[in-house]
Fold this protein.
Amino acid sequence: MSTVITYREAIRQALRETMERDERVFLMGEDVGRYGGSFAVSMGLLEQFGSERIIDTPLSESAFTGAGIGAALNGMRPIVEIMTVNFSLLALDQIMNNAATLLHMSGGQFNVPLVIRMATGGGKQLAAQHSHSLEGWFAHIPGLKVLTPATVQDAYEMVGLALADPDPVLIFENSLLYNSKGSLDTTSIPLAIGKAKVHREGKDLSILTYGISVFKALEAAEMLASEGIEAEVIDLRSLRPLDDEAIMATVRKTHRVMIVDEGWKSGSISAEIMARINEQAFFELDAPMGRVCSAEVPFPYAKHLEDAALPQPDKIVAMARKLMEES
Amino acid sequence: MDLTLAENFYRQMLLIRRFEEKCVEMYSKEKIRGFLHLTIGEEAVGVGVMHALTPEDAILATYREHGQALARGIHPNRIMAEMYGKVEGCSRGRGGSMHLFDAATRFYGGSAIVAGALPVAVGMALADKMMKRKRVTVCFFGDGAVAEGEFHESLNLAALWHLPILFVCENNRYAMGTAIEFSHSETNLAKKASCYRIESHQVDGMDVEAVAEAAQNAAESIRAGKGPVFLECLTYRFRAHSMFDAELYRSKSEVEEWKKKDPLLLLYQRYPSIDIDKYESEAAYIINEAVNFADNGTWEPIEDLTRFVYTQEAAQ
């Protein structure tokens, strides 16, 4: 039984259901309560759960993220919301030096069942301190899990999956997706953390992507289909762990690969995926791999410049044609 | 205060001092490596504060935490083995001197990011408050931490949310090699804490009885639901910051002046009937056992290197 709702509503529903199920779950962050969430995700939850479980915090990213770690260590199941990924850098010390390390540093004694949600991505003319896609950075860190829901179904399921995980899980929500609509089936069995998903089957080339770029890739695949090129679109869903098995399976199927990522190219998750394909499936490739990523600039404000900085369906199409021309 | 309690304090402080002196010896023999930060001179703070706690309370400390770990009751054998990097160590050799952990005594480490444990301590206290548990979370840190943003963010949260947390600032006057007057516009750190509407006191950190009394009062107040307390313990580090410190930033005469306030000496002067020899030989025995235990410990197999990165793998 499925219903059509927005990505925002899907997260809210998941938050509501998990909080109803488990009294240890609470939400904490800037403006999550009285304001209703800076992206209105938590709208109405304060009224239902009260200010002890929907906690408005001061602008103290480091302290409230660290407090989430402490609460997790001490028996709770906190969800920390950080307004945007750029602000998460103020909490990077807690995420990297505590959340990611405590289990190992303590010789397995102290795990940190913490969930951190944050908005990511560009496209809203918010310039260079609100628009970046830094999820690839976090995927660098052993001890963390990094999820990137693209669909309404994943936005819903990943909250529950993350809360059920005994270790810190970061969920990156592309802010342009909050209004997107999709169908939600609350009765289906969630696809586990670390599993990629094939969104469109194709035999000619593979587009590996995640988050909002999944939809850009699907749009590009439609355009390519009209030219007789059948692209396979893979939603990675999780940047750490990466689903190597699914990645190599599609490489072996199409032999041509492109990665689409809103992050920058240099030292990035797209570079990591290419490296893994080189290591594990090099001889399956019929052409050099391609990438469509954000331009290597701090994000500009002006719309035409920002559009030019971001991956777009036409750039994906152009890259696909190039890959197909290679013998 | 009765003699028995004073003897117990003396015994604990002496064990910490002799244990650390042995660590220095083992460091020079290259049994212990990495950073080694000694608490010698500051023993009264950890011993005094631990006296006020129950087994249900939680402790978060810094990279200078051998004293607190011993005073909390982590077995000296496991601490020494950790220093050696052996699997029998209290962090299985993954932490070393700076990262002693022990679930049984609720000792949540040694953190080596200055002020990095304060937000975590706030969260632990928040969980206790939410679950209506009558526990105290104690967070130790130095004067250096008071200059960090995380200190101010954390004190604000603790006061705002009225949390059951005891902040213990071990003010030893130096942030590594930078004296307090070069770090702080206001060198009375209790005054800074009180700006957050937190009950704050300065305590003679060389006097274990004074520390114990202040901590006892603080713990009672916290357990009674009166919110956080901040103790600034005025103390002094007799040894170098770490094993790599030439101590160019302070004079020998200053160190000698502070040694007149040695917490062991001070307590003995107050209770001259303390049988020092008895505790010396007891400490020597315990430390000898710890060294033997660590020497005979085992190295974790390299195949287990990546265990404990994630819980699932830890269980395997």
Observations:
- The mean pLDDT of chain B is 96.
- The first helix of chain B runs from residue 3 to 28.
- The first strand of chain B starts at residue 58 and ends at 62.
- The two ends of chain B are 51 Å apart (CA to CA).
